[in-house]
Amino acid sequence: MISRTTDDIPPFPEDVPTAPIGTISLAKIVDGDRTESAQAVEACRTHGFFYLDLTTTPLGQDLVNDAEELQDLSKQLFDQPLKDKMAYQHTPGNLFGYKEAGTVKQTDVTLRPDSTEFFNIAKDHMHGVAESRTYPQEVLDNKVLFQSFQKKAHEVCMTILAALATQLDLPPKSFMDKNIFTEPSGDHCRLTHKIPHVTDKNAIGLPSHTDFGSITLLFNWLGGLQIQSRDLEKAGEWEFVKPVPGHAIINLGDAMVTFTNGYLKSAKHRVVPAPGEQAEISRYSVVYFVRPHNAVVMEPLEKFRDLAPEMKVAGKFKPEGDKVLTAGEWMTQRTKQMGQ
Ligand SMILES: O=C(O)CCC(=O)C(=O)O
Ligand SMILES: [Fe+2]
What Pfam families does this protein map onto (predicted)? Predict the structure, then answer.
């Protein structure tokens, strides 16, 4: 079965317009199919999002299964009383641990509280790359599952980064070398839970943002994720990204914008109440964020250093001032900016 967790949820309404993002096949990317890689580059220069079809490789199928098991685990994890979850709250400037719903992002002009709680579980902590912080017993009891998901998600993301590099006439490891699994980094698995819309009619799921790492691999089962339309007539309107069983949703983060000096894009996205009847039930997502390892210097690759400004697209290119940061410093700065 491709997706057992979609069997018991109301369908995404057919009459709701959705973003026309493309689908890339993991199997074809693994096979070195240049047409597929060219489409991935195109997706990263336009919408900044694409579906990744995971149905036709064992690695992809295993990843889907892990994500579904993590969704089951999320239900138990978020079902705990708030005070128990708050015992694992993240510390300022460090995203690992628990974030409660009701956060206001400091850079959000609307200053609306979000309605999403999440747990960020570090790759370094699950794989012994760095000393771990504390996590709930349910997380520790499922360490093997987190290890499996993180390893596979990282591998899939590296395959995409290699395809992008090759297609851009760079050595295949150009981006991979900045995201080494065994090096200390901000890589993590995020489990999110959005309370049903009916509980808080005004809340936003997650305010508009770009991800700040290299590449994000996302599973969700209910609608609610939106990206801004690229259709000139719809100028900036938000469109839903409909979940597709057996597919992950991939987007690039601001680090890739920095490495390519804006040639590749990190698209703004947000989470709002899911459309139709889907708004009435809890929404979960399982995410893996690949971030450049801490020692990486956040500057464009040689090839992109002198890129003309008009080639630049959405996303933040540089931190305040001209200081070149390491990825470790950059992540701390961006995390503080989130008000977290
Ligand atoms: O839950 C989703 O669909 C998106 C989550 C997201 O954008 C994030 O956690 O950065
Ligand atoms: Fe995001």
Answer: 2OG-FeII_Oxy, DIOX_N
